[in-house]
Automatic annotation (TrEMBL):
Domain of life: Bacteria
Name listed for the protein in its UniProt record: F420-non-reducing hydrogenase small subunit
Chief subcellular location: periplasm
Cellular component, GO, one term: periplasmic space
Residues annotated as domain NADH:ubiquinone oxidoreductase-like 20kDa subunit: 13-172
Length: 312
């Protein structure tokens, strides 16, 4: 018997849905086990009926609900709540849904500043930029999914690796709950680490890291953090490499940016990273900038607008 699946995308870019397509031939195996009853990115299924005759949002009932993207406006919050009422299990798909993702960087600014910056700079007295219904009202911040509804399964990643998505879906079909990796990126990183005290300052990633050859094995390359590049590996959940385990950014000789969110779901990557740097004798004042420490985890009120200097 197949499992019914409903899928929604909120404040998202469709990268998580592309990860589903990236299952390749395994997608055929999934489609043999599930029945997709609602997925706007792939299926033409309207909120208010195919002819718009219904007065309320009507998403079919499903055993599993996949929701990608965070919640930024009133429509997102309404759709998320409706999905929760129609689905037995809700999966927060991708880091935007689990921790706010890149869109939550906007939480550093008041909504009024965002609107003025993005929409009113080109307005004139004759052509003012106004937003009236049916344009959904923006909320005061970009939120993770679990700040509005109960979430049963978290699949972080920008986007989640197809291997993890496949494992999660097959586990649910088999009646079990999927398990996330509990290690950090550093725990799965093959680069060479010499230990504490070898570095006192950080520098911007404006040049190639040290390695003798692009074909050199990663287990011969010195740790990128110890080379002075800000690498979020110590405070980021592993898994971006899928079943191959090797972190994707590290495999490309690029420092981890934290796209899988904190190791602990309720962790604070900024605070944890500052503690990690300080404990290794690195001057935190040498950080190129601070917001990138919460590049993918600015929801849960971790990123807030800074007060004007005169109010400090």
């Amino acid at each position: 018997m197949s499992v019914t699946v409903a899928s929604e995308w909120l404040n998202a870019c469709s990268g998580c849905e592309i990860s589903l397509v990236d299952l390749g031939e395994r997608l055929l195996d999934v489609l043999n086990l599930v029945e997709i009853v609602h997925m706007p990115v792939l299926l033409d299924h309207k909120y208010f009926g195919q002819t718009g005759d219904k007065k309320h949002v009507d998403i079919p009932e499903a055993e599993v609900g996949l929701i990608s993207g965070g919640i930024r406006n009133e429509e997102h919050a309404h759709i998320a709540a409706h999905m929760r009422s129609r689905c037995k299990v809700i999966i927060a798909l991708g880091t935007c849904a689990t921790h706010g993702g890149i869109p939550a960087l906007a939480n550093s600014f008041p909504v009024s500043d965002l609107l003025e910056r993005c929409f009113t700079t080109e307005s004139t007295d004759e052509n003012p930029r106004t937003f009236e219904p049916p344009v959904p009202q923006l909320l005061d911040r970009c939120s993770a999914l679990d700040e509005h509804i109960a979430v049963d399964v978290y699949l972080p990643g920008c986007p989640p690796h197809p291997d993890q998505l496949f494992s999660a879906l097959t586990a649910l079909v088999q009646g079990t709950m999927p398990e996330l990796p509990a290690k950090s990126v550093c725990d799965t990183c093959p680069t060479v680490r010499e230990g504490k005290g070898k570095l006192t300052e950080l520098r911007r990633f404006l040049q190639n890291p040290f390695y003798s050859s692009p074909r050199e094995p990663l287990d011969k390359m010195p740790c990128l953090l110890e080379q002075g590049f800000l690498c979020m590996g110590p405070v980021t959940r592993a898994g971006c490499g899928g079943d191959a385990t090797t972190p994707r950014c590290i495999a490309a000789r690029v420092p981890c940016r934290g796209c899988y969110g904190p190791v602990r779901h309720d962790g604070n990557p900024m605070l944890d990273m500052l503690n990690a740097l300080a404990s290794n004798g690195i001057d935190v004042k040498s950080l190129p900038e601070f917001p990138s420490l919460l590049r993918f985890a600015g929801a849960h009120r971790l990123l807030r607008p800074s007060r004007p200097r005169k109010e400090r």
